[in-house]
Amino acid sequence: VGPKKEVAECKEKFASSVDPTVSQTFMLDRVFNPEGKSLPPMRGFKYSSWSPLGCDANGRCLLAALTMDNRLTIHANLNRLQWVQLVDLTEIYGERLYEASYKLSKADTPRGELGDFSEFQRRHSMQTPVRMEWSGICTTQQVKHNNECRDVGSVLLAVLFENGNIAVWQFQLPFLGKESITSCNTIESGINSPSVLSWWEYEHNNRKMSGLIVGSAFGPVKILPVNLKAVKGYFTLRQPVVLWQEMDQLPVHSIKCIPLYHPYQKCSCSLVVAARGAYVFWCLLLISKAGLNVHNSHVTGLHSLPIVSMTADKQNGTVYTCSSDGKVRQLIPIFTDVALKFEHQLIKLSEVFGSVRTHGIAVSPCGAYLAVITTEGMTNGLHPVNKNYQVQFVTLKTFEEAAAQLLESSVQNLFRQVDLTDLVRWKILKDKHIPQFLQEALDKKIESCGSTYFWRFKLFLLRILYQSMQKAPSEVMWRPSHEDAKILISDSPGMGSTEDDQEEGTSKQGSKQSLCNTGKGMDIDDTADDSIPQSSDIGGREPMEEKLLEIQAQIEAVEMHLTREHMKRVLGEVYLHTWITENTSIPTRGVCDFLMSDDGYDDRTARVLIGHILKKMNKQTFPEHCSLCKEILPFTDRKQAVCSNGHIWLRCFLTYQSCQSLVYRRCLLHDSIARHPSPEDPEWIKRLLQGPCTFCDSPVF
């Protein structure tokens, strides 16, 4: 808010002021006085917001975090299990205001000095974030040095401040840090005591419109226009639209915007829902020839206490609300001729988890799970002494619904539907077989369209089936061990444990055994039976081993099909981007020979493509060479390359080059490895290296 020395002098002056309206306001406001002396330290987070998928260098989400001391930062998961702060937006925005003398525009009249308490408050309120929300990914045009235009992805982050102003940051994708900030524009909302913010994004006749929905602690809700310069196909409102104007002192707690299709009007529409006290305010926005139609109302009788959290399933428009007494309401929108109505039903968490207090809810991206933050409720009319916060997961879909949604998905990416695949995984692990209806439906999809997505889905099912057939591990793999250095002789790995030893060590090993019996997808009885092989199982081992070998053979066949399909794609890129007898770093001849080595593989498209490429190569082979001994690396295996001297190099699954370096990348599920792009790589190879895993759709780290 000013030079450090001047700020320190002003703070001392306000703290010791004889005017109690100044001194008490200053001492009790943690924005001015974050140290607080006798007050508890301000640690933790006020709010966090996830960006859409595809914003960081790995194609995943960015995390905007607002700390208790009002610092807004952006973090990214650049390496596996490692979060890095990329930028501090509070610091950058403060520097911009300082350079502009704390004026939003040049036309603003100069304000008072920092020593004036009202000016001191103004400078703080214009930099204290209340909420921040990400927009969807949009496309901007960038002019290159040769006057060519190329499309560049960008994302917007709207930050709502205490004084009602909104800063709209525009970031170029992938977001790498301060250098990726394209612009920052400030909008004056004119709303007093703003409490919540949300993006309004509406698509009408292939034209995307955007705006910002702002809610106030006093009750009003309105949409503000956002002028997105140089953004293709984006439009905004001409003027603000007031959705609710009454100052009824019902604070707006949460706002969600859901795109829907109106079955009667035969067009797309936008449903805005806001939690206001114990009620849900809804507003249906629809663009017709007459202009923007606005229908609004309130849903009452949902909760006896104020709504503490609200979430929405954007797949079908279902809204979930919860109050602190452990009651969750499910609201299903039903369209009428004019507007819509809501059917709602009660979900009593006490029937599932016992007496609990709820603090927040969130629905998974595809609506498979509802996550609920809970603490212990009252017991015999008494509150618990200690609070233990837990995240509970409630399934919202059945296995059959999840499987049907995966088969009919327009996304065709397993990683983006991981909550649905988790439901399918749990069912197969539990039943130890793939349901017949799913197997038949998947085979039909593969025969009819042959998309690699369905082959990847089949591979996923076979792998989970193989996992379910295997013997359960005796240790819980994910839980860290906290064992003492001194152990019983019977526990040592070299000694076999008899039934008598197990009975004697029951009291000492009880906790360990209980951990082993809590694996997801396994019943306690099943785990206990599998962990101790009985003599009667010897006769049944051979059929089980044969079954495992059969599943393993099916897995290898599907993996080989996916590998060949990706090889065809790589060869297509080679053909499109190379001249006659040009040496690319991709082992083109080796990939061609590998594809044609199997007599049982008869793909006319592959044969024609290989014929064109070999004609282009003009009998040149361009083999790879081992960097240690300079011997030729033959292409005999899709996973690794071995030279004549026995040096083994892993192959990149995206380009099939040998990774002859100490550093490489792996996909999230550790299916495959990929090399890092090098500066001398052409753009088309760098584009290939940005792809996800060809087996599981996971990003590569």
Molecular structure report:
The protein has 701 residues and is of the alpha+beta class. Among the domains are: 189-351, YVTN repeat-like/Quinoprotein amine dehydrogenase (Methylamine Dehydrogenase, Chain H, 7 Propeller); 400-469, no CATH class; 549-690, no CATH class. It contains 16 helices and 31 strands. Strands 5, 6, 7, 8 and 9 form a five-stranded antiparallel sheet that branches. Strands 10, 11, 12, 13 and 14 form a five-stranded mixed sheet that branches. Helix 8 (436-448) runs antiparallel to helix 9 (452-469), helix 13 packs across helix 14 (588-596) and helix 14 (588-596) runs antiparallel to helix 15 (604-617). Residues 484-537 have low confidence and may be disordered. InterPro entries: DUF5921, GTF3C4, TFIIIC_delta_N, TFIIIC_Znf, WD40_repeat_dom_sf. This is TF3C4 factor. It comes from Sula dactylatra. Residues 6-397 form the Transcription factor IIIC 90kDa subunit N-terminal domain. One of its GO terms (biological process) is transcription initiation at RNA polymerase III promoter.
Question: What fraction, in percent, of the residue positions are helical?
Answer: 25-40%
CATH superfamily of the domain at 189-351: YVTN repeat-like/Quinoprotein amine dehydrogenase
Outline the biggest β-sheet: 5 strands, antiparallel
Which stretches of 5+ consecutive residues score pLDDT under 50? 484-537
In DSSP terms, counting alpha (H) and pi (I) runs of 4 or more, how many helices?
16
Pfam families: DUF5921, TFIIIC_delta, zf-TFIIIC
Biased composition (Polar residues): 507-517
Domain Transcription factor IIIC putative zinc-finger: 618-668
Region (Disordered): 488-542
